[in-house]
Design a protein that fits this description.
Length: about 450
């Protein structure tokens, strides 16, 4: 076999492969055996029909076609191995010559991972925010905890912000009650802005038994129109928050004193922020590398992924009785802008994958069994399924190699992060140990092939 590689672009090559007919003989012989298993000829057992009989009965051309279908993947794979390129898509094959006795010539165009010259990670400095926990941070957490233990006490006074009221409400448009426009006996926090615009202002100052009408600007399919709403207050209750003392600490936690509870909250906030700092370091390292490297992406893969995501959006909108443009309009985004954002996201995801795949290849990183197990557990947890179910899903969908590649990229990012210099905004060195994040969190994956 002879093969040549022509570089069409930094992300696409063209193979020209020539295979002599002598080299095809094993493939032709195997094709005869396959065909013999499929034909039934009186006097011969299945699989035992001689080639001359097959030629006379169904024609040698059928056998040669089978041999061609088997030979192309085999010799294409050999050509890829010899060229030592990382293919990332299915090849576009064109047979330029194949005749009985003359051998085979074909071309294959395919997308490849671009060559990336990585900088020495030890020359890179990543700056992150420092981890600090103030008394105000602890106070805010304590206040939120106390709020969860608050009780509601009926009061005989006008409603004000922070009160909980029991209400009946009807919303009409052009005199007709809207679908889902009736609320009966609902508990509502005044000032929470959770139902319709204008409700909070209408409720303030009302006592139990009083009603009010107000204009309610609508959203969704009625965006731009204004309904008329009527609300009646049936009861007003005041939220009573427990005092922050040792008794509260014993009620709300396993600690005996408020100071012990405060110390625990401070430590928990610090732990969370160290994880956030680690995530920030990963993101800023990736962005630093992307900014310093020119990493091309194959347009065919980008276009295919953009189309796939557009179809997902279309189905999502359709399931809600809308089209994609209408759904995006509710979110304040045009279809054109959305497509531009999706394309930019896909291109960035591909660049990150190429970057990390290059690290994997250069450093010959491999996954240990425990690392793969951790990755599967983390991914399963994020998806809300058991690790066994997630692993079985990967097997059923033939996506185990994609999961392994994704886990390796996470390991590559960790490898880089361990070798760069990390400082906070004051210039102090940062030790990221203890703030590690799962490999599954690294970057969303784009299916390449």
């Amino acid at each position: 076999m002879k093969s040549a590689v022509e570089t069409l672009s930094p992300t696409r090559v063209k193979f020209t492969v020539e295979v002599g007919f002598d080299e095809l003989q094993p493939t032709v012989a195997a094709a005869y055996r396959k065909v013999a298993e499929q034909v039934r000829v009186p006097g011969f057992r299945p699989g035992k029909v001689p080639p001359p009989i097959i030629d006379r009965r169904i024609g040698r051309g059928v056998v040669l076609e089978q041999a061609l279908n088997d030979a192309i993947p085999q010799f294409y794979g050999q050509a890829v191995d010899e060229a030592a390129v990382a293919v990332i898509s299915q090849p576009e094959i064109e047979v330029t010559n194949f005749a009985d006795g003359e051998g085979l010539t074909f071309t294959a165009e395919v997308d490849v991972r671009p060559t990336i010259e990585l900088p020495d990670p030890e020359s890179i400095t990543v700056t992150v925010d420092p981890v600090t926990v103030s008394d105000a941070d602890v106070d805010a957490e304590l206040a939120a905890l106390a709020d969860r233990f608050a009780t509601l006490k009926p009061v005989d006074r006008p409603a004000r912000r922070g009160d909980f009221v029991t209400i009946d409400m009807t919303v009409r448009l052009d005199g007709e009650v809207l679908e889902d426009g009736t609320v009966t006996g609902a508990s509502y926090e005044v000032g929470s802005a959770q139902l319709v615009e204008g409700l909070d202002e209408a409720l303030e100052g009302l006592t139990a038994g009083q009603s009010a009408e107000f204009d309610a600007p609508l959203a969704g399919p009625y965006a731009g129109r204004t309904a008329r709403a009527e609300v009646t207050v049936r009861a007003v209750r005041e939220k009573q928050v427990p005092a922050l003392d040792d008794a509260f600490a014993q009620q709300a936690s396993e600690f005996d004193t408020l100071e012990e509870l405060r110390a625990h909250i401070r430590e928990r906030i610090g732990r969370t922020r160290r994880i956030q700092q680690h995530v920030q370091a990963r993101e800023r390292l990736l962005q630093t590398l992307l900014d310093s490297l020119d990493i091309p992406v194959p347009e065919r893969i980008v276009d295919a992924e953009v189309r796939s995501r557009a179809e997902q959006l279309r189905r999502y909108a359709e399931a809600r009785g809308m089209d994609a443009e209408g759904l995006l309009a509710q979110q304040g985004e045009s279809l054109h802008d959305h497509e531009a954002h999706v394309r930019a996201d896909v291109e960035r995801e591909l660049r990150v994958q190429f970057l990390l795949d290059t690290v994997v290849a250069r450093e010959q990183l491999q996954l240990q069994e425990a690392e793969l197990t951790d990755y599967l557990i983390q991914r399963a947890t994020r998806l809300g399924v058991s690790p066994d179910d997630y692993a079985n899903q990967l097997v059923r969908t033939n996506t185990v190699p994609l999961a392994v590649a994704d886990a390796l990229r996470g390991k590559a990012l960790t490898y880089l992060l361990q070798r760069v210099r990390v400082v906070d905004t004051t210039g102090a060195p940062v030790n990221l140990e203890g703030g590690s994040t799962p490999a599954a969190e690294a970057e969303p994956a784009v299916s390449e092939a």
